[in-house]
Design goal:
two-stranded antiparallel sheet; binds 3'-azido-3'-deoxythymidine-5'-monophosphate; alpha/beta; 255 residues; 7 strands; Rossmann fold; five-stranded parallel sheet
Length: 255
């Protein structure tokens, strides 16, 4: 169901599955399910597992990530990952611009076709990172988010919660494994690549602020959030997610 076209080097563009709504879909209306959490929480892996499970259970689904999946979003992603931006409000506008484009070009049309959309990061990333993490006033972000997504709102937000000390260990372990499997020339560029990722280089206190922000939001809106302990094994995390998503599907199933 997921189809990506690479039209430029490193550019991941989203295209709708050709079979669109032609296959059987047990839902009349697509659901919007968002994933949130810090770096190293296993979000991307769990998003992929969920979209595969949904498709196998007869729910037409697609997976997108933020920022990205539109020509503009991929440029924003490249910029954010490699360049330093001095003003957090400028960064906020960039994320919102990429999101607005993704909503219009992909998410809204998919939901209209009855396709369920899984999004790897959405509005709550901006609240957690730019708001709690970098001090952009939360009411400013709320206003921008409202303008950006209009009346789209997630049916469920899954928070993969992990202590930043633990996720840092995971990230470092993965970097070491990747580095040891590369030859010397490639080693250098890979390390440069990781060092260029300014988010992974933020202080531990920043990552703790982001985590606390997420937990505060999740605890304030328990009915539309699910907090899953990301320290558990990949399959246990996937099982917890599926239990919660299955409940959501059962309440939306067409008769
Ligand atoms: P990943 O998709 O690899 O998680 O990277 C995107 C980065 O952009 C991520 N970095 N970390 N850690 C979080 C950051 N981000 C924001 O700061 N605000 C946002 O609104 C979004 C969507 C992402």
């Amino acid at each position: 169901m997921i189809s990506k076209k690479t039209s430029e080097k490193n550019l991941q563009l989203f295209t709708f599955p050709k079979d669109g709504k032609s296959s059987k879909n047990i839902l009349d209306k697509g659901l919007l399910i968002t994933f949130e959490g810090g770096e190293g929480s296993g979000k991307s892996t769990q998003c992929k597992r969920l979209v595969n499970k949904l498709v196998s259970e007869g729910v037409n689904s697609i997976l997108v990530h933020e920022p990205g999946n539109t020509p503009m979003g991929e440029q924003v992603r490249k910029w954010i990952k490699s360049k330093s931006i001095k003003n957090p409000i400028a960064e906020t506008y960039l994320f919102c611009a990429a999101r607005a484009e993704l909503c219009k070009a992909v998410i809204e049309p998919a939901l209209d076709k009855g396709i369920t959309v899984i999004v790897d990061r959405f509005i709550h990333s901006t609240i957690a990172y730019q708001g709690y993490g970098k001090g952009v006033p939360l009411d400013v972000i709320d206003q921008l988010n409202t303008i950006t997504i209009k009346d789209l709102s997630p049916d469920l937000t899954i928070l993969l919660d992990i202590d930043p000390d633990l996720s840092t260990q995971r990230i470092n372990k993965n970097i070491n494994i990747e580095l040891s499997s590369l030859n010397n020339n490639k080693k250098k560029s890979k390390r440069e690549n990781f060092e260029g990722n300014k988010y992974e280089n933020m202080s531990m206190s920043f990552h703790h602020k982001v985590r606390n922000g997420y937990l505060e939001m999740a605890n304030e809106q328990r009915s539309s959030w699910s907090i899953v302990g990301a320290h558990q094994s990949e399959s246990r995390v996937a099982d917890s997610i599926w239990k919660r998503v299955k409940r959501l599907i059962d309440t939306h199933k067409s008769n």
